[in-house]
């Protein structure tokens, strides 16, 4: 029952959304729908009056009869006009709702300043459902809400109509229909919960089909010939769900047959009663018509009310996810209001420890180090030692579990987050590839300034002109094959664009996480020189596995299992003869072997 109340609550919470999307369409629909609900009862009533009038007349039309016929025609006209009207306004309303919902979702995602929510499987899944289904859920919401409203009004009006004959008879009919309604509703709900509520099994099904259909996996699927494997996995999940649903469906069939039988007995007895009334002269022939039609209509509208409301239930689950998302608190503390006035960057890690949400492993353990203004600092260490995690903490994508990070002596949590992030530009290890134009891919990091000169400098210093010459649309070239006229780039070209994007941003601190992983030797050399030319104008934090880049850094921090084991200049760390030295020698020797091969 609490679940039911929850559903009703969620549906009622959607009404303000209708109004926010469009006041005028909501009002129009709120006029059309009740009218549609009440019209069948009114038409029936007029028909009955006409029949009774005709039966009482010997010949010739009375004015009254003419009026009734005209009314009847007018109501038929009105009924026929309302359907297309409703369709039109439902369509218009849907468009508005879709964009309203999407804009709200996008706006809300901007309020969540960290990324830790993405660490929860159910949450991540909910966000995906919200995003994917926002395009069509509002249609259901509108159509089914309208359907339920309309059938409630029709059912009630039929009930009132039947009550004019005999209140007990109408009660008797309604009561004989209700058990069927309830059981159908329950079973329908059960089927939905099994199939649609995105059970873990259903989520897996989604994933398996996605592997076979999406571009991301296309190469490997073809090479390793894994399609049969994924289809089999899909079918296994499907069969597990389907056996449950089949069970529900069969129960539905059995119950509804039994209850239909009971309902028909009730209806049959009532019908016998009204026929008897006509025979003994207590009712008219028109009464038989109105009575039988009202029973059929009441049954029909009750059935569609059940069907629509069970479909609405499914939509309510979606809206529940939507409202949950809209009510989320930001995952990182946003109390900081301090504006940043200092143009210097002095960053300090103070006994920082970190564990990822929903995980137990201590990724960073009591870490302390300084990054001074104008310094070029390198983070070096094995895979998984915590380098990228340090960057994420600096960017406040997560907050430390213990300890603090200070900027110019003040905890970064005290600064206004947008102000703070403005100071920093980053080339992420898993940088984004936007399906936008080449130019947009670069200026996206600093949209506030449309600085033609800075953009020109980037094109020049990154030597993009030869790449631009290969594009039919020059800098307006869309970099994605999923849009018309788009093209695709190589991994190295994409990485170079991500470095260019980070450099376009007017920032004090430049962080680069493996920026040359995909670059060729020439481009890497150029990148290092470019970094060197920044001099003291920028503070740089560089994560790299490539030793060649280390010649331009002032200091190196060597990380091992989330702890700093060595720090110093390149020379100092080499002389240390510890892990850094081993790594250094490994790379050096590898290089030597290759050159001796050539010799
Ligand atoms: N979102 C996450 N949830 C749980 N654990 C994570 C998450 N991201 C990373 N880790 C774990 O944290 C540790 C540090 O990861 P991190 O990405 O910081 O390593 P890294 O030093 O950047 O490695 P690489 O050189 O491969 O880029 C790893 O053991 C990794 O498995
Ligand atoms: Mg990393």
Textual characterization of the structure:
With 599 residues, the chain is an alpha/beta fold. The longest helix has 53 residues, at 227-279. Helix 2 (23-56) packs antiparallel against helix 10 (285-326) and helix 6 runs antiparallel to helix 9 (227-279). It is elongated, with a radius of gyration of 35 Å. The chain contains 19 helices and ten strands. It has helices at 2-21, 23-56, 63-111, 121-133, 137-163, 167-195, 200-213, 215-224, 227-279, 285-326, 387-394, 417-422, 438-443, 452-461, 465-469, 491-504, 521-534, 570-576, 579-598; strands at residues 347-355, 362-371, 376-381, 402-407, 410-411, 424-427, 509-513, 539-543, 555-560, 563-568. Among the domains are: 338-423 and 507-577, Rossmann fold (3-Layer(aba) Sandwich); 437-506, no CATH class. The mean pLDDT is 87. The strands form two sheets. Strands 6-7-8-3-9-10 form a six-stranded mixed beta sheet, with helices on both faces. The chain has a four-stranded antiparallel beta sheet with strand order 2-1-4-5, with helices on one face. Bound molecules: adenosine-5'-triphosphate (ATP) and magnesium ion (MG). The site of adenosine-5'-triphosphate has 13 residues, from helix 11.
């Amino acid at each position: 029952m609490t679940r039911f109340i929850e559903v009703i609550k969620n549906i009622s919470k959607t009404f303000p959304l209708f109004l926010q999307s469009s006041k005028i369409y909501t009002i129009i629909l709120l006029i059309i729908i009740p009218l549609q609900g009440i019209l069948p009862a009114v038409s029936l009533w007029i028909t009955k009056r006409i029949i009774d009038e005709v039966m009482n007349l010997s010949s010739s039309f009375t004015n009254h009869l003419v009026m009734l016929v005209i009314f009847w025609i007018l109501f038929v006209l009105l009924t026929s006009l309302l359907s297309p009207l409703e369709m039109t306004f439902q369509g218009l309303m849907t468009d508005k709702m879709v964009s309203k919902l999407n804009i709200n979702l996008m706006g809300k995602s901007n309020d969540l300043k960290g990324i830790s929510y993405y660490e929860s499987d159910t949450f991540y899944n909910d966000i995906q459902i919200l995003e994917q289904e926002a395009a069509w859920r509002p249609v259901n919401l509108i159509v089914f809400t309208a359907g339920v409203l309309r059938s409630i009004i029709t059912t009630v009006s039929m009930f009132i109509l039947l009550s004019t004959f005999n209140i007990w008879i109408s009660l008797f009919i309604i009561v004989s229909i209700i058990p069927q309604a309830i059981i159908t509703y329950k079973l329908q709900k059960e089927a939905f919960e099994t199939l649609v509520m995105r059970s873990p099994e259903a989520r897996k099904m989604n994933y398996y089909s996605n592997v076979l259909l999406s571009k991301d996996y296309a190469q490997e699927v073809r090479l390793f010939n894994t399609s049969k494997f994924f289809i089999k996995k899909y079918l296994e999940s499907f069969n597990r769900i389907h056996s449950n649903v089949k069970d529900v469906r069969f129960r539905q069939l059995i119950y509804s047959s039994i209850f239909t039988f009971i309902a028909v007995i009730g209806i049959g007895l009532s019908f016998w009663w009204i026929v008897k009334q006509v025979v003994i002269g207590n009712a008219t022939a028109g009464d038989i018509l109105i009575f039988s039609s009202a029973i059929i209509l009441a049954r029909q509208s009750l059935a569609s009310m059940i069907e629509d409301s069970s479909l609405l239930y499914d939509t309510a689950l979606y809206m529940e996810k939507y409202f949950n998302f809209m009510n989320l608190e930001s995952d990182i503390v946003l109390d900081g209001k301090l504006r940043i006035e200092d143009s210097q960057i002095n960053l300090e890690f103070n006994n920082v420890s970190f564990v990822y949400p929903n995980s137990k492993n201590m990724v960073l353990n009591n870490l302390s180090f300084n990054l001074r203004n104008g310094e070029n600092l390198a983070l070096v260490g094995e895979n998984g030692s915590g380098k990228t995690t340090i960057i994420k903490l600096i960017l406040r994508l997560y907050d430390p579990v213990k300890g603090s990070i200070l900027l110019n002596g003040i905890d970064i949590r005290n600064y206004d987050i947008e102000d703070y992030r403005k100071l920093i530009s980053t080339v992420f290890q898993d940088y984004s590839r936007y399906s936008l134009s080449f130019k947009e891919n670069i200026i996206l990091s600093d949209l506030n300034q449309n600085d033609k000169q800075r953009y020109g400098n980037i094109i020049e210093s990154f030597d993009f002109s030869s790449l631009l010459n290969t594009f039919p649309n020059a800098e307006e070239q869309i970099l994605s094959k999923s849009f018309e006229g788009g093209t695709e780039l190589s991994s190295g070209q994409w990485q170079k664009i991500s470095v260019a994007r980070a450099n376009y941003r007017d920032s004090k601190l430049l962080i680069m996480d493996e920026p040359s992983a995909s670059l060729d030797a020439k481009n890497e050399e150029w990148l290092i020189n470019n970094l060197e030319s920044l001099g003291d104008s920028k503070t740089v934090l560089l994560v790299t596995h490539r030793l060649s880049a280390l010649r331009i850094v002032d200091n190196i921090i060597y990380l091992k299992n989330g702890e700093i084991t060595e720090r110093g200049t390149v020379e100092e760390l080499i002389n240390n003869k510890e892990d850094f030295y081993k790594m250094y020698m490994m790379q050096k020797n590898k290089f030597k072997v290759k050159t001796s091969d050539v010799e």
